[in-house]
What does this fold into?
Amino acid sequence: MVKVNAYLNFDGNCRDAVEYYSKVFGVPAQIMTFGEAPMDKGEEMPEAMKSRIMHANLVLGENQLMFSDTMPGMDFIVGNNISLSINGTDAEAMTAWFTALAADGTVQMPLAPTFWGPMYGMLVDRFGICWQFNLETA
It folds into this structure.
């Protein structure tokens, strides 16, 4: 099964947005800051990053709205702060789609294992659309 969800980015005010949308839609928010995320040994995070939101989501029926803050200094343009997140369990299909979109695009994060799942990657396609690929365990 494959789902496509909207992923909204903010520049330091993600928590405010998630809490607002949580109230609007009447659903609880799940929020993780960069400071709460596991770090590799010896890796340090700037203090300004720790309170920013790494990932948050609201479950609306069978769909999700997902959110995060950008990293300090990262380009942020209101109106261009949305990407499409492909979530599925078929590694072969996800890899093929990622590779096809990356061929004429720009890979921001190659497909690789993460602490939350077996594979994740980000890219911008040739039309300027931001994509995230997240392989979920079956």
